[in-house]
Amino acid sequence: MGRGLDLLVERMLLVSDADGRLRIADEARALHQRAAETQQAGRRQVHTGIPDEEYLITLKVLQRMMRNAGGEVSPD
């Protein structure tokens, strides 16, 4: 985790406050917001015309197929 934090500090996405504590920089907050908006837009596009119930059923079937093929799937 240390190297990950170092990278965020190097990129100025984490900054130290007056007490030496790391804080999320405004640029990091904006980056997170843009990423969230992009993810939500993608989800809306993929879900167009698909009810949540059908989406969930599809995911469960795909997980079962992966297990049947010997793959690892996170718990339901």
Keywords:
76 residues, two-stranded antiparallel ribbon, 8% strand
Architecture blueprint of SSEs:
Blueprint: H1 2-10, E1 14-16, E2 22-24, H2 26-47, H3 52-68
Can you walk through the features of this model?
With 76 residues, the chain is mainly alpha-helical. It contains 3 helices and 2 strands. It has a two-stranded antiparallel sheet. A hairpin with a 5-residue loop joins strand 1 and strand 2. The longest helix is centred in the middle third of the chain and has 22 residues. The chain is elongated, with a radius of gyration of 20 Å. The protein starts with a helix and ends in an 8-residue tail after the last helix.
Mean pLDDT, nearest integer? 92
Helix content: 55-70%
Q: N-to-C SSE series? A: HEEHH
Q: What does the largest sheet look like? A: 2 strands, antiparallel
Strands ordered across the widest β-sheet: 1-2
What's the helix count?
3
Straight-line distance between termini: 28 Å
Q: Tell me the radius of gyration.
A: 20 Å
Strand runs, count: 2
Which overall shape is indicated by the principal axes computed on the Cα atoms? elongated
Helix and strand composition category: mainly alpha
Strand content: 5-15%
Low-confidence stretches: none
